[in-house]
């Protein structure tokens, strides 16, 4: 890596000249305690380009690594420097297809508050199709949720929350936003939801985790999916099974289509139904032995055809 002298021109615009700002369609940001890695994906004539900028805290300021070269900027805070660049980038675009944040530090609140402030100044509001958050260690998911209200409500159709620890998440605030009716895909991994399943039935592709479920929950999902006139998928993960589900699952779903037992996943059972019209419903139940989590997967597809939902 080539080390450059201390920066004499600390203006944000002077350090990102190599980025084709108007062509950026995806942004990936990884936040650690003393560094931020920002990756910008650009497309031009069906070709993909990726540019990474790494901001690191130093004794007297921060460093910026880009294109294999590292430059030192005195009296610059690495997080403030990153947001000064992000502000410039967002001022030149109104649409980002994919916006992802992986946060691996204890400064979650500070970063997310600054992110919300930066996005709030965008007028018109930034259009984002897919928003993803990944937390490792401490998280502040409510701050992450508050960022959503700064985005264009009609463009956002996919939200993904992931954490490496079991933690409850309150989705009430999201459900009260004008964005909620337009969301088609919601994936929540690690976080445990308390809202009833009826709140998620309008989604085309969903994955949620609950502490426990009831037979009534399964009946609600079965009825909804049997009546579906379009392809959709729902993965329901749950932590605790007192025996009620395992003992009564065939009462709800009837005769099995297949069943198998493996060391890793325990017992896997599957049911298939031909719904009204041209659709087929597949239900898979995994009653885990070695792992704590159990799951049900409901998938409606066009009968006799493959679907991308099967691999999501």
TrEMBL record:
Start and end residues of each DUF38 domain: 110-245
Keywords: Membrane, Transmembrane, Transmembrane helix
InterPro entries in the record: DUF38/FTH_CAE_spp (IPR002900)
Spans through the membrane: 81-101
Pfam families, A to Z: FTH
PANTHER family in the record: DUF38 DOMAIN-CONTAINING PROTEIN-RELATED, F-BOX A PROTEIN
Listed name of the protein: DUF38 domain-containing protein
Organism: Caenorhabditis elegans
